[in-house]
Design brief:
The chain has about 750 residues and is mainly alpha-helical. Among the domains are: about 80 residues; about 140 residues, Rossmann fold, CATH 3.40.50.300; about 80 residues; about 80 residues, Arc Repressor Mutant, subunit A (Orthogonal Bundle); about 70 residues, Tetratricopeptide repeat domain (Serine Threonine Protein Phosphatase 5, Tetratricopeptide repeat, Alpha Horseshoe), CATH 1.25.40. It is built from 36 helices and ten strands. It has a five-stranded parallel sheet, sandwiched between helices. Strands 8-10-9 form a three-stranded antiparallel sheet. It has a two-stranded antiparallel ribbon with strand order 6-7. A hairpin with a 2-residue loop joins β9 and β10. α8 runs parallel beside α9. The longest helix has 26 residues. The N and C termini lie far apart (about 70 Å). It comes from Asanoa hainanensis. Keywords: TPR repeat. InterPro entries: AAA+_ATPase, P-loop_NTPase, TPR-like_helical_dom_sf, TPR_rpt.
Length: about 750
């Protein structure tokens, strides 16, 4: 049982009312309390004391609280409040007004509420007024409001009113404000029944104007439903809960009730099923909390299922299966699907239901409004309004301004509705439009980043798109790809699985590979490389296969899977030579040189790179010539031939600057600085590394920043500045962290 908190009490009358509630909640009779207190407190004295409105004697208060098993720490709080009130007792209090019955309509407080301490503290610290608690269905708004009301009851001796407005009920109509007001008035002892909602609202406000009350308006459906029920007295606290944001309702404060964090989700399952089981299946429990999205309702359902014979491992496997996910989140009268259906059916009959259904059909993690509009072939302004409606109903989330996403359970429900309403051809068209516009925007961004690179854009750059402008800066193109890279991989995987867009998937993996390599996103690079290889092979495209093999090989090399990387490059080189593709051969030799270098085979590395350089000079490919010169410089550095290495770096840097490729310039500057550092030219190295860092930061190139910072840490350490060295190394470690690839290299074929 939650202890009553006396610290908000301001009068002796409130103090006695709260003390009376302590006795009521204890369930003890006056005689039992008197026996426990001994001679200090006869039963008749207890009854008289709790019927008065004056401050009892201190020893009597202590005796009552101790007899009712109030913890000693809480007793001390009570006595501190008693002392504060006793000091002001000389000031006569106003004569009490006969305010009629004191209702206490609150439902029982939840026995435990995990992970809501911060929200409860905010509610407890707030002054009188109207609080609006909003959140998705099943997130625990009602439980939070009821518990907060119980805690506040002691500071509101005028009583507690509660009503379920049924604004989010699947099987009952929303409560009418007039009916609610008549019920409130009866509870307050008012026997008249005003005929209209306006009259009833005015009488209700007059009746409670001088009372200190707590009113809970639970499950509100609209601002119009709530407004007549709001009191205007200065001492009343009103808690309104709603799954809608109700932007048109004027309130004192708003509190967004978010899903539980992972730790609190595990704690809730431990409370429901026992900590031993949670510890024994810790990995499965973590998966369940993630798959439930931190929803207390979903976790309660899982807890109920797990209390039977089901293991957490089997429940996690079922929840991870889209076909079973929502079925697993039903037990008794608890159902995640039913709650989602209420929100969906409440949507206005315009574009919002269609956006909700069809936007869930393609695979993506989070998306902007412009991409959603292109997917639905609808005006951007209308789609933005529809997304706002979905956001207001907590059917989508907004992790960042202008970005939207579904929770897994909501996406599965939305797809169920799409299957029920939208013909397969309509769903397919939405997927194709999104893939086309996203792939085309990728081509535009890659052109901006690498204007001198002959990347394959033929199958991905033809669709008109409004996601990234033709005049986008390098930084804007980089940011767009950072936002969309996971979406691109998910969309490409979905389309490949359906056997569609194979030429575009083949070209996408190659066009985006250089950005992913520069950015250090080797997982995405590997997975898109695998898709590109598979698509090219299904198309019988040898040239495309060689390009895609190169993409995957580089990702393998970045994760030090060198043997696999070299095997892939050897396959690609054989295809290039068979096709007579000299530019492709030069690219393979360049990458093979880097692979042998990282594998410690410096002589083989130098031979491959020098052959690549010769081919690129013959082909008059100045841009690639600059890149290979820089790579040769790295090998010469490792061979200890520092002067030759510096000459090669400087030659590569000159070409890069001539062509105004600032991304490449930052990387060449870092390589030059590292050779200078190894050669003992620390001050020159410091200047070049700082310039590389400045360019990378300007372009939002995190991996470039990480490489430059890592080198700067080494340089500062050589110069004796250990503090700056540690700082640079720590920041570099954060920027350069990348998870393992976890994919298999394809076999030759």
């Amino acid at each position: 049982m939650q202890a009553l908190d006396p610290r908000g009490v301001t009068t002796a009358e409130e103090f006695v009312v709260l003390l009376r509630r302590v006795r009521d909640r204890s369930g003890l009779s006056y005689r039992t309390i008197a026996k426990r207190a001994g001679a200090v407190l006869p039963a008749s004295t207890l009854a008289t004391m709790l019927a008065r409105q004056t401050l009892p004697r201190r020893e009597l208060v202590t005796a009552v609280l101790t007899a009712c098993e109030v913890p000693p720490s809480a007793v001390r709080q009570w006595i501190a409040v008693w002392e504060r009130l006793a000091e002001g007792a000389a000031t006569p209090a106003p004569a009490p007004v006969d305010a009629g019955p004191v209702p206490f309509q609150l439902p029982p407080a939840p026995p435990v509420l995990v992970g809501r301490d911060a929200e409860l503290d905010r509610l407890a610290a707030g002054h009188a007024g109207v609080w609006l608690l909003t959140g998705a269905g099943g997130v625990g708004k009602s439980a939070l409001a009821v518990l907060a009301a119980h805690r506040a009851a002691g500071r509101h001796p005028g009583g507690c009113l509660y009503v379920d407005l049924r604004g989010a009920s699947a099987d009952a109509a929303p409560s009418e404000p007039h009916d609610v007001l008549l019920g409130f008035l009866r509870a307050l002892g008012v026997r008249t029944a005003p005929a209209t909602v306006d009259e009833a609202s005015a009488l209700f406000r007059s009746t409670v104007a001088d009372r200190a009350m707590v009113i809970v308006l639970d499950n509100a459906g609209s601002a119009a439903q709530v407004r007549p029920l709001l009191p205007s007295g200065p001492r009343t606290t009103t808690l309104v809960t709603s799954r809608w944001r109700l932007p048109d309702l004027d309130v004192t404060r708003r509190l967004a009730v978010e899903p539980l964090p992972a730790t609190a989700g595990r704690d809730l399952l431990a409370h429901l099923c026992g900590p031993e089981r949670v510890t024994a299946e810790a990995a499965a429990v973590s998966d369940i909390v993630r798959l439930c999205g931190g929803s207390p309702l979903a976790l309660r359902i899982v807890g109920a299922r797990a209390s039977g014979r089901q293991t957490f491992s089997s429940l996690a496997a079922h929840l991870d299966d889209d076909a079973r996910h929502l079925d697993e989140l039903e037990v008794g009268d608890l159902s995640v699907r039913a709650g989602l259906r209420v929100g969906y059916r409440s949507l206005p009959t315009d574009l919002a239901p269609s956006v909700f259904r069809l936007a869930a059909v393609p695979d993506w993690i989070e998306l902007g409004a412009a991409a959603c509009a292109a997917m639905l072939d609808a005006p951007a302004v209308a789609v933005e309004r529809a997304l706002d409606v979905l956001l207001d109903a907590h059917l989508v989330e907004s992790p960042a301004p202008g970005r939207f996403r579904y929770h897994d359970s909501v996406r599965i429900f939305a797809r169920e509705q799409a299957d029920a309403v939208d013909p397969p051809a309509v769903q397919l068209a939405a997927r194709e439009r999104l893939a086309a516009v996203m792939f085309s925007a990728t081509a535009s961004a890659a052109r901006t980043l690498f204007p001198h690179d002959p990347l394959p854009y033929g199958e991905i750059g033809t669709t008109a798109q409004r996601l990234i402008g033709p005049d986008a800066t390098t930084a804007q193109a980089w940011r767009w790809l950072e936002q969309e890279r996971v979406n691109l991989r998910m969309i490409a995987s979905q389309e490949y699985a359906a056997g569609r867009a194979l030429p575009a998937i083949r070209d996408l993996g190659v066009a985006v590979a250089k950005y992913l390599d520069y950015a250090g996103h080797f997982v995405d690079q590997a997975r898109l490389g695998q898709l590109a290889i598979a698509a090219a092979r299904r198309l019988g495209d040898q040239r495309g296969t060689a390009q895609a093999l190169n993409t995957l090989a580089i990702a393998m090399l970045r994760h030090e899977r060198r043997r696999e990387g070299i095997e892939l490059l050897d396959q690609a080189l054989a295809i290039r030579r068979e096709l007579g593709d000299r530019a492709g051969e030069a690219a393979c030799l360049n990458n093979l040189g880097n692979a042998h270098r990282d594998n410690g085979d410096l002589d083989d590395a130098l031979r491959c790179l020098e052959r690549s350089l010769a081919l690129r000079k013959e082909l008059s490919d100045r841009y690639k010539t600059g890149s290979t010169l820089d790579n040769i410089g790295i090998v010469l550095r490792r061979l200890g031939r520092f002067e030759e290495a510096l000459d090669h770096h400087r030659a590569g840097l000159a070409i890069t600057r001539e062509l105004d490729d600032r991304l490449r310039e930052a990387l060449v500057l870092t390589n030059l600085a590292e050779t200078e550092h190894v050669a003992g030219e620390q001050h020159q190295a410091l200047g070049h590394a700082e310039r590389a860092l400045a360019i990378s930061r300007e372009l939002h190139h995190d991996r470039g920043c990480g490489l430059a910072l890592q080198l700067l840490g080494d340089i500062h350490a050589s110069l004796g500045d250990t503090t700056r060295a540690r700082s640079c190394h720590a920041e570099a470690a954060e920027l350069l962290h990348e998870p393992a690839i976890g994919v298999e290299a394809p076999t030759a074929g």
